[in-house]
Write a structure and sequence with these properties.
The chain has 252 residues and is α/β, with parallel strands linked by helices. It has helices at 18-24, 48-55, 69-82, 102-110, 131-148, 164-169, 179-188, 212-228, 241-251, and strands spanning 3-11, 33-42, 59-63, 87-91, 116-127, 159-163, 193-201. Helix 7 packs parallel to helix 8.
Length: 252
């Protein structure tokens, strides 16, 4: 049986960039892998949905109003699981992240060696990021590293992949954002995380949702709330796409 990869794009008023992102998503990664595209429309008031459909999105799920990025990624994981994804890939719809590098991002999960991967701008190339955003990334990444006692290079990445078990168990405890709390949640449950170098460029159109005061007053309390919770380790199943092919050959 082929593995299903669902690439989902959280999107709020991204009509200017989402078509280019969808067109860059590789549809033929591996003979035993199918790729489908899911757009989670977070209450857009522009033509995001219409242009995404024309660009070839396989699935659209819409919020009736803007709920926030954390709520949208949570919905993306839920919808991916319900659609039968073996791997879910989340990528921002603003065309800052390299969709054509999704095969490299998911390879450690296909190999069965990791459960959760993050595209790392700081291990790859980073172009055009302003100093205040760079410092903010350093701060929150260092904070995650200290809390997890595990060195992380880019804890704010907008390009990530999840195994089916990680999809099932990932919890995002606030609606505003997901970046820090989902990593804290998954790693503390025992999921294996790997950072994959990616190429990155700052968006040429549109606006980031990030506002300094809102970010700080939402994200820091959420991190404290996540760290105050206790989690049991998940019994993680380890299997690679090659092992699945071998087992199918024996039973076929």
């Amino acid at each position: 049986m082929k593995k299903k990869v669902i690439v989902f794009l959280p999107a709020h008023n991204e009509e200017e960039s989402i078509v280019e992102v969808i067109n860059k998503i590789p549809r033929h990664i591996h003979p035993q892998v199918t790729v489908e595209v899911l757009v989670i429309n977070d209450g857009s008031t522009d033509n995001t949905v219409e242009v995404a459909k024309k660009a070839g999105a396989d699935h659209i799920h819409s919020h009736t109003h803007n709920k926030g990025l954390g709520a949208t990624v949570r919905e993306g994981l839920k919808q991916s699981y319900q659609l039968g994804a073996d791997i879910a890939v989340m990528i921002d719809a603003d065309n800052e992240y390299p969709a054509w590098e999704i095969p490299e991002l998911i390879q450690p999960i296909l190999d069965g060696s990791y459960d959760y991967t993050m595209g790392s701008r700081f291990l790859g190339t980073i172009e055009g990021m302003r100093i205040h955003r760079r410092l903010g990334n350093y701060f929150f990444t260092l904070l995650q590293s200290i809390l997890l006692k595990k060195w992380i290079y880019d804890g704010q990445s907008g390009m990530r992949a999840f195994s089916r078990q990680a999809i099932e168990h990932a919890e995002i405890i606030h609606d505003y954002n997901y970046a820090q709390v989902i990593t804290l949640n998954l790693v503390r449950k025992g999921f294996r995380v790997k950072e994959v170098p990616i190429t990155y460029r700052v968006r040429s159109n549109g606006q980031s949702f990030i506002k300094f005061r809102s970010y700080m007053t939402s994200v820091i309390p959420a991190i404290l709330k996540e760290m105050s919770r206790s989690h049991e380790k998940v019994n993680i199943e380890h299997s690679s796409i090659e092992e699945c092919e071998t087992n199918e050959g024996k039973t076929g």
